[in-house]
Design goal:
Number of strands: 14
CATH class of the largest domain: Alpha Beta
Largest sheet: 10 strands, mixed
Structural class: alpha/beta
Order of helices and strands: EEEHEHEEEHEHEHEHHEEEHHHE
Distance between the termini: 34 Å
Low-confidence stretches: none
CATH superfamily of the largest domain: Ribokinase
Mean pLDDT: 97
Radius of gyration: 18 Å
Number of helices: 10
Bound molecules: adenosine-5'-triphosphate, 1-O-phosphono-beta-D-fructofuranose
Amino acid sequence: MILTVTLNPAVDKTYTTGSLILGQVNRLETTQNIAGGKGVNVAKILRQCGYPVTTCGLLGGYTGLFIEDYMNSIGADCRFTRVAGETRSNINVLAKDGYVTELLEPGPEVSDEELEIFVKGYEEAITRCELIVLSGSIARGIRSDIYKRLIKLANDNQKICILDTSAEALRCGIEAHPYMIKPNQKELEYLVGHKLTDIEDVADAAGKLCEEGIAKVVVSMGSKGLLSVSREGALWAKAPSVKAVNTVGCGDSVVASYAMSMLEGEDDFSSLKRAAATAASSASTFQSGEISLRLSKELLDKVQIEKRK
Ligand SMILES: Nc1ncnc2c1ncn2[C@@H]1O[C@H](COP(=O)(O)OP(=O)(O)OP(=O)(O)O)[C@@H](O)[C@H]1O
Ligand SMILES: O=P(O)(O)OC[C@@]1(O)O[C@H](CO)[C@@H](O)[C@@H]1O
């Protein structure tokens, strides 16, 4: 069983339009509400692949009910903690000119009492799971060392953690040495405090994190591809060429793929190959946090892996 944690889920209001112009009236062509937030997306992909999933985090209001209903409908074991505030709605505008614009709300204010109820449920849930995925930003009122605390609890129970977050929550979270992190290039730059110019630069920065005690650093680099770094070295997967329809949640598909690979005991090479194929399949699917199983399978043979270090 895999446990996914989403402390700041969202309904992704996904719009399509020709182009989005700042400071003007923009009429949208289509709209769809999608249950989202990074850990929710990871759980959705795992369910698509037939994996049993427990999903927890904080949900509130009608948007929270919308997400919970959807997760129940796909057979996830939902263990969310209710909060008084309303779960956020994020706006994703997919424009035909190729630009994807995301407007992300900060999320509801969460009280200490609500958080402690969540932590109690989490402590219970980790005992029944083999692997824990902690994903996304944290809602207001939650201290940035929350992932550090949750990872320590998992480590004390000898459970493997994957952390995929940003900013201070990421900086504090890595102090607890999660088994794997999946920063994108910007998130890695935030950690190291400077710009990274090429793949070698990115591999060096990720390598330093491995020396500090993180077994695997997988850096997602958008349409360029994916870099997997461990103490054994760095492997690069060029992204297979697909027609990108919605790239929101591609990073979550990388995390979901690695979670499956870990449980199946796949090596670095096969795990990276699978992740790049899954992520490209996610990019070519309209629904964020979904993949085409057929396309993922087809792309697997097309992913080329290169040793970079
Ligand atoms: N246009 C694309 N074509 C093929 N693969 C893609 C494309 N865009 C993204 N990917 C794949 O998805 C991976 C993750 O994408 P990205 O780096 O955008 O993640 P992210 O920033 O974590 O996104 P999110 O936070 O929305 O999940 C990339 O490393 C790449 O392998
Ligand atoms: O604010 P966060 O938690 O960093 O990101 C939230 C979010 O952009 O991440 C998912 C895609 O990865 C979307 O479903 C969601 O809207």
